[in-house]
Amino acid sequence: MKILVLNGPNLNLLGERQPEIYGRDGLGEILRQVRERAKALGVEVDDFQSNEEGALVTKIGESPRQYAGLIFNPAAYTHTSVALRDALDACRLPCVEVHLSNVHRREAFRHTSLTAAACVGQIMGFGARSYLLGLEALVGILREKTGPAPAKA
Ligand code: DQA
User: Fold this and answer.
1) pTM for the whole thing?
2) What is the mean pLDDT of each run of 10 residues along the chain (153 residues)?
3) Is residue 152 part of a domain?
């Protein structure tokens, strides 16, 4: 079972970008933790980050061919992107939306998510742990659908 971890704009800057809000871990370190947890859960993970809305739309559109589900931090596009919402609706893969910060404790413009309604759920406010919790939730949902993974020989 393969899962795609998608990251939107400016998340390539994690570590340097407002560490008081987003923490000191860079995206590479967060993805390392995600891969470690994925291994423990017995699933494979690919990742993709882009600062461009269209690149994210294209990646989501291609994802049903390769992936069972998505972990997605759409970053600022969460609050603005009808195109990403439509891409998620069209691809029909289960998606867990994750955010490092609790957007409801922040500016009002961050309180709306256009993407969340196309997702099975949303996890926010736990820093890098949001991704790990999101992965666990997604794998749980996928396993309920498909049954447990076969034991390794
Ligand atoms: C974010 C929250 C968004 O409002 C913001 O634009 C981001 C990061 C988060 O992970 O907390 O870029 O998605």
Assistant:
1) 0.94
2) 98 96 96 98 98 98 98 98 98 98 97 98 98 98 82 62
3) no
